[in-house]
Amino acid sequence: METQNEQWSSKLGFIYATAGTAIGLGAIWKFPYVAGTSGGGAFFLLFILFTLLIGLPLLIGEFILGRKTGKDAISTYKELAPKSAWVATGWIGVITCFIILTFYSVIGGWILIYLMNAITGQLSGLSVDQLGVEMGEIIANPWTTLGAQLVFILLTIIVVAKGIQQGIERASKVMMPALFVLLLIIAVRSLSLDGAMEGVQFLLLPDFSSITSETILFALGQALFALSLGISIMVTYSSYVPKTQSLPLAAGSIGIMNIFVALLAGLIIFPGVFTFGLEPSEGPQLIFVVLPAIFEQMMFGQLFLIAFLVLFLIAALTSAFSLLEIIVASRVKKEMSKRQKASWIMGIAAFVCGIPACLSFGVMADVEIFGLTFFDAADQLASNILMPLGALLISIFVPLKLSKTTLLNELKQGSSVASKLFMTWYFLLKYVTPFAIIVVFLDALGLFSLF
Q1: So where are the chain's domains?
Q2: In the chain, what is the straight-line distance between the N-terminal and C-terminal CA atoms, in Å?
Q3: When comparing pLDDT for 21 and 140, which is higher?
Q4: Which stretches does DSSP call E strand in 59-153?
């Protein structure tokens, strides 16, 4: 992104790149373990409802902000609400991106370690129990995990420092279709396992008695996390969108892809969980134990595992590029001469601040903040507090600061169905989205009882 007026070279490229921002770890890594700890099918149902009724309206709102101003997260709010406190919305987005990058890079490091272990054959022939032990040893080793986290951050910095638009778009056009195809293949294989149906029932048959206020909060947080909402990533990305792009079509495509990938991830993980006698609530490392076990049962399993980890790494890096880019873009504005310096400073700062999260599974496992490890605390702060807060502010800001006429005109550009959808979208964004977020927030604080 060398200049502020640069645009995506194609409509499909924008959709793939934007979807790739979150699909990497949001759907493939985080969804299965959050669903596993939050009720399975009931959580998945809430996730879909929140995605459609809150996520998509908000995504379109962020798209409108970015395309209308053509500026970064902070500058967008400064332009539309000059000399007001609304600029804090942009700052919340940038700070949240920084926090996410601190623990996101930890998972990126794990992927790098697993990729190297898969290439060298160290994961071949291991049982589920042995894979669990292997995972525990890997994440508890401070030097290995810190080194891998640093490499992941350095890769991110190098790309962002050079300007990443062409890299993201070109990689996404190849990566996203390939990831979908490979996920489908693995899901089919996973569904053929002995305990598959038990896993499918866990994911697709809601047990409404398992729904708690915490489940609702986590589902809302996951819907926002999966679409990278509330942190103005989509504001910055859409600032490069031409007027010929249909914003509703782009948002709908991204939303469907996110739900589909989350479904595939669940259909891959949970049949393996029940087949191999694991607990769905295993936690963040679930995918690193179950997937290798599934691949071990497949013909050419090691090759498939390597291919998946490569694609998973690319998806994770694409998301990391976005996180760091939003931070850097907010600092350099149009002064591209500052890009390299800002990229290195903010990237290294994210690594340093992410060290406690990296060590949360080893030497700092007993160090807690409000009863949570550093890793979990960063995740909870970003996913369940700052992202919903940012989403609430944006849902209020868009209809408050932009007139209906302005919003309709922006939506109509490139879209033949915007006029028919406008009032439904406007109602959801102005009333349903903020109300839902406020209720969940109050319940989380113990000020309002859902149950």
Answers
A1: 11-444
A2: 48
A3: 140
A4: none
